[in-house]
Specification:
Structural class: alpha+beta
Helix content: 25-40%
Number of strands: 6
Shape: globular
Strand content: 15-25%
Radius of gyration: 18 Å
Oligomer: single chain
Largest sheet: 4 strands, antiparallel
Distance between the termini: 25 Å
Order of helices and strands: EHEEHHEHEHE
Strand order of the largest sheet: 4-6-1-5
Number of helices: 5
């Protein structure tokens, strides 16, 4: 029996693919887009941030050009992100591929795993096309938040993008 003597992490993270009709000029404009009803408190699980704090953090995160999805490769980039299991995309009718039943045969297991990867990518491409088609006037960015820092858990679980086109990918 193995015994773990050190720190064991049970943290999670989630990626968010978010669409905006245009890149905001500052954090205040982003706040208006994210929280159209005005200032509020975002408080999942008893941890809280103001909506201004949330918008400021997201604003900082989207300043990196790498978070924005290039328009010439939107399908490929979004499909890669969506192909992981744990995608919460309720508007897409097709279910994500199921994990295969593994066998004792390593070659057969590898074949099943390769097929699963291929099926996930095919699903991701279809989901990406639908998301882009449903949001034709949007530019997209991808951010990731985890619950290993208390304030970041507000970003991961606080439904901060509920007023924007968004897909959440849980990576628990």
């Amino acid at each position: 029996m193995k015994v773990r003597a050190g720190f064991v992490s049970n943290s999670s993270s989630s990626s968010f693919i978010v669409g905006l009709r245009h890149k905001p000029k500052d954090a205040n404009e982003l706040h208006r887009l994210m929280f159209p009803n005005g200032d509020t408190i975002v408080q999942p699980y008893g941890i809280s941030l103001t909506s201004r704090q949330v918008a400021n953090r997201v604003w900082e995160d989207i300043q990196d050009i790498k978070t924005w999805v290039a328009s010439d490769n939107q399908v490929g980039i979004l499909a890669q992100e969506l192909s992981s299991s744990g995608t919460d995309y309720n508007e897409f009718d097709e279910s994500q591929p199921e994990f295969p039943n593994w066998t004792e045969d390593k070659e057969e297991s590898q074949r099943l795993w390769d097929q699963y990867d291929s099926d996930c990518m095919e699903w991701g491409i279809k989901a990406a096309i639908k998301f882009i088609t449903d949001n034709p006037d949007c530019e997209f960015f991808i951010v990731e938040y985890s619950d290993d820092i208390r304030s970041d858990s507000v970003l991961e679980y606080g439904e901060i993008f509920e007023n924007l086109p968004c897909i959440k990918i849980s990576k628990h």
